[in-house]
Amino acid sequence: MLAYILRRLLLIIPTLFGILLINFLIIQAAPGGPVEQMIAKLEGFDSAAGGATGRISGGGAEVAVAGSNYRGAQGLDPELVAEIEKMYGFDKPAPERFWLMIKNYLHLDFGTSFFRDARVTDLILEKLPVSISLGLWSTLIMYLVSIPMGIAKAVRHGSAFDVWTSSAIIVGYAIPAFLFAILLIVLFAGGSYFDWFPLRGLTSNNFDELSLGGKILDYFWHLALPVTALVIGNFATLTLLTKNSFLDEINKQYVVTARAKGLSEHRVLYGHVFRNAMLLIIAGFPSAFIGIFFTGSLLIEVIFSLDGLGLLSFESALNRDYPVVFGTLFIFTLLGLIVKLIGDLTYTLVDPRIDFESREG
Question: Which residue ranges traverse the bilayer (predicted)?
Answer without folding.
Answer: 9-30, 130-151, 163-189, 219-242, 277-304, 324-343
